[in-house]
Description:
- This is MFS transporter.
- By secondary structure, this protein is mainly α.
- 74% of the residues lie in helices and 1% in strands.
- It contains 22 helices and three strands.
- Strands 1-3-2 form a three-stranded mixed sheet.
- The relative contact order is 0.15.
Amino acid sequence: MTSPTAAxxxxxxxxxxxxxxxxxxxxxxxxxxxxxxxNSILNVAMKTIATPAPVGLGASQSDLEWAINSYxxxxxxxxxxxxxxxxxxxxxxxLLAGMLVFGLGSLLSAMAASPGExxxxxxxxxxxxAFVMPATLAIxxxxxxxxxxxxxxxxxxxxxxxxxxxGPITGGLLIEHFWWxxxxxxxxxxxxxxxxxxxxxxxxSKDPNPGKLDPVGVLLSIVGLVALIYGIIKGGELADFTDPxxxxxxxxxxxxxxxxxxxxxxxxxxxxxxxxxxNKVFSASIGVVGIVFFALMGVxxxxxxxxxxxxxxxxxxxxxxxxxxxxxxxxxxxxARLVVDRFGVRATCAGGMLLVxxxxxxxxxxxxxxxIWLLIVLGFVMGTGMAHVMPPVTVxxxxxxxxxxxxxxxxxxxxxxxxxGSLGIAVLGALxxxxxxxxxxxxxxxxxxxxxxxxxxxxxxxxxTAEKLQLPALVDPAKDAFIHAxxxxxxxxxxxxxxxxxxxxxxxxxxxxxxxxxxAPAAVPQGRTDSGASTAKV
Length: 538
């Protein structure tokens, strides 16, 4: 077996791949952009999709949540399996297949004739996205030398910020000049270009010794993740996690995941080596990812409605107001490694989490008449914080694992991110809905009884009812109730991110290990015999 020292010194990447590594990264970023771009575009388009036909689909608040969550449910449920398949059969081919399915789902979503169809086609997009996301990071780990991996991962993370920046602006322009389906149709040409470039530039890589298939473990992971996320989403939709429709699938999911862990501990060929979680750096990094996305996704859901429904800005203007958060990530994420080099992983991540906390606390003081520049500053502060959290913890996660397991590691990273985000949308969304409903309830006496329940669902429902029934006196109470609910949720989110900062301070290392793991087997050119290395085909 190759010693750790020999593994570090041995050539790992074929020369032909090494020469074009930055072009490969650019192609992978394009694939990542289209997946992240879609959700940021959809956030801006939600208000239009909720408008009755022919302008929109007349989607209810529940329909809008499921248009997001159907994607998340399939995406998160299959991420781990997709990562395993990439490690086993080749990451390039899972990436290409995922992009093709994502493009098809985008085309079908653009042509959806009802909220139900849109929800179904969004699930197809989630299926494709599940194979794209882990493959991009796994391929990066196999085409870059270890000393360049933090920089490449920083650019990878910064691409998310770029997508967040492009998405709202693109969505706003499309909504103002075309019909709502254009926010999905725009994905298709990007997918076509990405497929061509990936087929030409991206090398294939896979685990040379994947072992036997573990169908029981894979099935348990899928059932557990899908049931858990479904229960979380349903509890958020009902604003009642004690309802059997919420807690039964949640319990099924938890039991299936417990069974998965127990089965994997005793399996001779586990799909997941659960001993990875004994590494406190790996576990803490995974936890920080889940925590930060729990807080961020919940708040980003109400941000659009604050900007458009309370402040009265258009979809395009809403997109422009989201730019500071995205631009900060784009600027600072690729440079986060320099901060880590100087201050260490622990201080960088904890500091980033505290900056995100400051952003959330700022939201807790916004009113209907606050200067709009405050929103711009808060967005930039939160984006700066995120840029100093995600790259270091991603490097820590991938650095704790052998490189031939890059697909599984990437999938775990993204799975915890999606589970955290789903929990954030569900739990914080339910909290927002409950506080809003309680705040506006006393002002709905003038609404006829048959419309009252629907009118109290959300600020959009209340404002729509006020316009339809010509009840202008409802407008200001609706905005006041929403702002109060936003303040409550922002405060809770700030508390959650403080916990994340404490977790980072207690468990993350002062200094980071090289990506690829200490002594982890390295990827080498095909035909070399270094033990345990990923196979890389030029």
